[in-house]
Amino acid sequence: MRKWSRPSSYGNIPTPRKGHAGATIGDSWIIVGGGSEDGGGDTMVLNMSTYEWSVMTTTQGGFCAGSEGLSLIVSSYDGEHVLVSFGGRCSLYYENEVNVLKPSHKSTSKAPILNRVSGVHNATNNISNFGETEKAESSNAAVGNRHGNGHQHVFDKKLTDERLKHAMLEIEIGVMRQNVSKSEAVRQKMIEAAGPRQKTIEELRQELVEAKELKQKRCFKV
């Protein structure tokens, strides 16, 4: 029977937390969010080859990195990895925003979800802000290459947009399923609670009918 082992880790070891999310990029295991005594705001990364912890990014204004129960995926844009998170609970509030982190730049961008279309569109626009302006080439060959790269860039962007849309749809479908399950559970409890009451009313009605019949029989005897 296989058993879990506990290898020693070192570096900036994170404080204990719960409700966090994790994703891997190469040998790096990235931990985002989660509740802890210090808020769990720092995004941590563990080098799985050396078991060294380090801080990828600290808490930034407008982004509740200490959110509990958030969803996290890894996608790519312009050939670089990006982390995309959604939802979670921060303090007393539930989040409905998309947050994007490009590990190479260690910066976070937020895109509020207004609806299914605009939410994905805003997330894509925020990711595109990470692009860098290419240097102009003077030779005709360089111009041709730049045009070819431009077509490839458009293709990659469309592919990334579709992946983001697919990921967002999966997240929204999961949330909708949870809401339907909760509504069904509440409805079932209401039915169970109303059951005894309906039975009592039926019994009272039957007693009234029997009392009325008994009274009529007595009148006939008289």
From TrEMBL:
One GO process term, biological-process aspect: lipid transport
Biased composition (Polar residues): 1-12
Protein's UniProt name: Uncharacterized protein
Start and end residues of each stretch annotated as Disordered: 1-20
Molecular-function GO terms, alphabetical: fatty-acyl-CoA binding
InterPro entries, per the entry: Gal_Oxase/kelch_b-propeller (IPR011043), Kelch-typ_b-propeller (IPR015915)
Keywords linked to the UniProt accession: Kelch repeat, Repeat
Cellular component GO terms, alphabetical: cytosol
